[in-house]
């Protein structure tokens, strides 16, 4: 899933975040939603990339979804641990 929040005010950001918690952000005109396995981000102007709230570098940048890349081993839950 790819979500892009179009340029707007802080109020627009708060509204989109609140809607996202309820799954209603898809209908927000400030939110662009699509699905892709690979995307490339570029801009004629300097564009800083934000990755989960952290600075991730400047465009151009390419992203790829590596399906089933992370394998987790979780111990079985013991009854007395509840």
TrEMBL record:
Keywords assigned by UniProt, alphabetized: Kinase, Transferase
Residue ranges that the Swiss-Prot or TrEMBL entry lists as coiled coil: none
Transferase is among the record's keywords: yes
UniProt key word Protein biosynthesis: no
SUPFAM superfamilies per UniProt: NAD kinase/diacylglycerol kinase-like (SSF111331)
Every YegS/DAGK C-terminal domain range: 1-73
GO molecular function: kinase activity
The protein, known as: Diacylglycerol kinase
Organism encoding this protein: Bacillus wiedmannii
